[in-house]
Amino acid sequence: MNLYKKRVISLIATAFFLPTFLMGSNMLLDPAEIYHKSFFRPECTPYRTVETLVGKINHYMEGYNGVLYGSSLSTNFETGYLLKKTGVRFFKTARDGIGAMSMDKIVRYVFEKDKTSDLAVVWWELYHQKMTNEERIKDNFSTYLFNDDISDDLPYLMSFLTMKKGIDVIRGKCVSSKIDMTAWRNDIRHQTTQSNYYQHIDDINKQIRSAQKQWADYSFQPAEVPALDEYVLPVVRSNPDRKFVFFVPPVSLAALASFKTDELNRFFTMIKRLADEGKTNPNVKVYLPVWNKDVITDGRLYRDDLHYVGSINDLMVQDIVAGKYLATPDNFEAFVQDLTDWIKHEQMRK
Question: What are the φ/ψ torsions at residue 223 (nearest 5 degrees)?
Answer without folding.
Answer: -135, 165
